[in-house]
Amino acid sequence: MNQPHGTLPEHARAIIAEEEALLSRVQETLEAARHKTGRATDTQGLVAQLQVLRDDAATAAVADLPHLLVQMTQTRALMERQEAVRLPDSQAPYFAHLRLDGEGGARDYLLGRTTFADVSAGVRVIDWRFAPIARVFYCYEEGDSYEEYFGERLAEGTVETRRLVVIERGVLTRIISGALVLERAPDGEWHSVGLDVTSLQSGGAGTAARPEFLGTGKGARRREDAFGVTALLDAEQYEAVSTGPDRPLLVLGSAGSGKTTVALHRLAKIAFDDAETFPQSRMKLIVPEEGLARLSRRLLAPLGLGKVAVQTRDSWLLQVAKQAFDLPGIKLWHDTPPLVSRFKRHPTLRRALAARVGVPKTSAGVTLERLRKRLADAYFDRHFLETVVNAARGELPRTAIDEVMEHTRLQHATPLSKELKGITDPEMLITVDGKAIEEDTPYALAGTVDLDDLPILMFLKAQHTSLGLERLAHVVLDEAEDFSLFELFVVSRLLGKGKSCTLAGDEMQQTDAGFAGWPAVLNELNIRDAATCRLQVSYRCPRPVVELARQVLGTQAPAAHDTGRPGAPVGFHHFPDEAQAQLFIGEALRDLVAREPHASVGVIASSPESAEAVFRVVADMPWSRRVSDGEFTFEPGVDVTDVGSVKGLEFDYVILPDVTARAYPVDDESRRRLHVAITRTSHQLWVVSSGVRSHLIPGAGAAAPR
Ligand SMILES: Nc1ncnc2c1ncn2[C@@H]1O[C@H](COP(=O)(O)OP(=O)(O)OP(=O)(O)O)[C@@H](O)[C@H]1O
């Protein structure tokens, strides 16, 4: 597959020469522009640039006009604000090369992150968000005829060249032209290598890896982030990204199909197309977990969206609740029993509570404390709780009723501090180990509010009066299947009349039972007319992983459209006891990290406790990290974590250390949890078990567990 430069065919060498010459020209032109703006005072430099642009515009072809006009507008705006001109980064000024043969003859366009044109030098770097040219790039193949509106006028022509290029630290290192992939080795020699576009981002094609051997060579060498996914968006994704800013959009698709990618690129395009209506300060991304919040911030920065606020659902809820109730703080209880939490998040509670509230008569009594008491009345009403549980049709066990009542009783008990207010000596309110007297006792719950209650309390308040929340210009909800109807209700209050929002989700990844369904989600947000796109291509996971994930889902699995690219087979390893399994994992990790020091590895346990146990075997290694609060660093190395923390994330290698019958019993929720863990894999997956292996893994025995 590997063909060195000397033996490359003539046309491949011509492509390399052409791309290298083009890059040199761009870098020289950029250098000159930088020199010009650096020498003059800012304003003088801008005036000069505007003059050049005007001259260009006077002689430009139709296809050039739109981006020249954009650049003129931007330059004028900068002049008004007395800011310096932003030029593309000459270390990586663009990521794609498009040559169009149209009415004015052949023209080269380079897609990058910042627009820059010097038409006299034949240099046109176009921001990928800039519609007419970008649309041709994303929606047409080399050799296709195109017909697109450039401004008011219809432009026609042929796509002569469509190439992806990787420029790292100012050097061209990769060219992809159709099926031809050319790579520059560190010694400067060019080679032709095999094509696997879908895995470009993570390093290359699948190899003939064996299931019992961890490692496919992907993490052996350092990978630069030069080849951003922006260059790879497929036509379907680009269409979704280009949905008009006012239209709500629901992005659906299986794990790793690019939902987050689409949502974030849409945000970038909206901000670019109409920065005045959609300033970054009024756009927000809300995600269920800290790990995904951190990843999203990293992905937003190169898209120029560093000022968009990214919040976890919990921190967002607390922030809006404080605003809605005009309180500096709310005493939260963070250890809500899982069943109580599930009850409070279930869609049937939303319906039952709406019916119970009835038509409000007065806006008096909407303080947090008053509403908290009213909500407690409902939680103490056994008949009401039974109605909710019955309506859930088996998704909520009957034991939830007593658990909710007991939990509410503890939260509404008189705080110990009040009961003991006769005691004036503060020393007497401290235990021998220095803790407050109610700590670690049921009294600690007294006077607290569950996080899950915050949206319910806001819902109750909104029945009487406005929540007084600041409106947002655009909201993105990632992993939208994890938002309860009450939370969506609060989101709808943030959107106001605009309704500009993007929801990305996959019902197969809901972490707890009780997803209301997409129609109910859209209904709650009052966006029944939302555009919907269903992404079909599985980009993250190789085929063996996709197939296992589908088998684990069983009858819940949606119809298959695409089963991913070829890749390493899944390794199944079974041991009589846990200690053996952990030692085996420790050895395999040491070996892998020695061979592939730049790989990212996720050891994803079924629970935090199990993650803690596995971590012990590698805790002393400098490359191992125990990630418990979503504090991922996204550096090479091994993250030992649990399935509750990894939604939306991905690793080159994934090891599931405890796929036992106890950790993943045969029920729908376990199926979805295991499916989430499996689909974090971008290269190779190992499923490790001890004792009794989970029956969710198909062909127990046939898949050669050891
Ligand atoms: N068109 C594409 N070509 C190549 N890679 C892509 C493409 N679109 C997305 N990817 C890559 O696929 C991976 C998964 O993308 P993303 O995280 O957006 O998927 P997702 O559907 O949100 O996943 P999840 O369901 O796990 O949340 C990322 O590495 C992303 O960069």
UniProtKB/TrEMBL annotation:
Entries under InterPro entries matching the protein: DNA_helicase_UvrD/REP (IPR000212), P-loop_NTPase (IPR027417), UvrD-like_ATP-bd (IPR014016), UvrD-like_helicase_C (IPR027785)
Keyword presence, Hydrolase: yes
Annotated GO MF terms: ATP binding
One Pfam family recorded for the sequence: UvrD_C_2
Binding locations of ATP: 253-260
Keywords, sorted A to Z: ATP-binding, Helicase, Hydrolase, Nucleotide-binding
Domain UvrD-like helicase ATP-binding: 232-542
Protein name in the entry: DNA 3'-5' helicase II
